[in-house]
Amino acid sequence: MTGREIRASLREGRLVYSTAVVAVSPLWANALSGAGADFVFIDSEHTPADRQTLAWTCRAYAAVDVPPVVRIPSPDPYEAAKVLDGGAAGIIAPYIESADQVRELTGVARYRPLKGDRLARAVADADSLEPELRTYLADRNADTILIANIESVPAIENLDDILSVGGLDSVLIGPHDLSCSLGIPEQYTHPMFDEAVRTIFSKAREHGVGAGIHFWTGMDQEIEWSKAGGNLIMHSSDFALFGQGLKRELNELREALGDTDSADRWGDTTPIV
Q: Is the bond leading into 113 cis (omega within 30 degrees of zero)?
């Protein structure tokens, strides 16, 4: 799908599929394309990838028609502009807690390359733009995807204001940070966590904004939440899938070969991102 098709699907409640990638190998682009992902979530918040590496990675995915959406290190409009200049099809902004943060990022996603006072006036009132300029900016930025990470109690408390800002395509729950903010770290089956997920999904859909959770610890739970309103299916990551798949198959080999001594040697090494 193109960026504008993904944006429309998210807003209209249709299912969109993605996964997170932390590896920067160009070989991953073909793997994602063949797997049927609608777009790829490239993380730069919890990885050391520099600006040049991110740009090359984005170009690799774009070359096989998998739109690359980059999570920036902080909800900073200048960081957003950097990755978009480098070839990203959109951004995921981490730890959003206020409508003002979303307005600043909307300025980049919807009115780039305007800056300064001219941009501030456009965000406050799109009618302040000359008709020719307004058409130009709408066409230039029509494919830019804007997703906000919802990862804290303050974000939930301010969610109606956040969702009321025009230009936001979807929210994406960061489960680890949200569970910690709720005071129940990594307790993803806790009723309080389940209620928070369902509240976020419900509010997002009421506002015509997509909703999802980046989940990697159980497909049954992921499916249940998706049926409760989540239409952005952000399934696992290359790191988690590789580790889980390799562990499973090595254990199968150990069992088949009667190697009981080493069967229980390894614990859960799935990274938290």
A: yes
Q: What is the CA radius of gyration of the chain?
A: 20
Say which residue the tokens 């206020």 belong to. Answer: 98
Helix (H) or strand (E) holding 219: helix 219-227
How many whole angstroms separate alpha carbon 145 and alpha carbon 156? 22
Q: What is the pTM of this model?
A: 0.93
Beta-bridged to residue 148, according to DSSP, are 93, 171
Q: Are 169 and 212 in contact (CB under 8 A)?
A: no
DSSP codes joined into one string, 166-206: TT--EEEE-HHHHHHHTT-TT-TTSHHHHHHHHHHHHHHHH
User: Within 36-185, where are the H helices?
Assistant: 51-63, 77-85, 99-111, 116-124, 131-140, 153-157, 159-163, 175-181
Which pair of structure tokens corresponds to residue 152? 């804290």
Query: What integer pLDDT is reported at residue 25 of this predicted model?
Result: 86
Strands 210-215 and 90-93: unpaired
87 φψ region: left (φ > 0), alpha (ψ -120 to 50), beta (else): left
| 3-state SS, one letter per residue, for 15-80 | CEEEEEECCCCCHHHHHHHHHCCCEEEEECCCCCCCHHHHHHHHHHHHHCCCCEEEECCCCCHHHH
Q: Does the pLDDT value for residue 184 go beyond 90?
A: yes
- What pLDDT, on a 0 to 100 scale, did the predictor assign at position 106? 96
pLDDT at 46: 92
Q: Using an 8 Å Cβ cutoff, are 54 and 84 in contact?
A: no
What is the phi/psi pair of residue 270, to 5°? -65, 125
216-267, pLDDT tens digit by residue? 888 999 999 999 999 999 999 999 999 999 999 999 999 999 987 765 555 5
SS3 of residue 119 by DSSP: helix
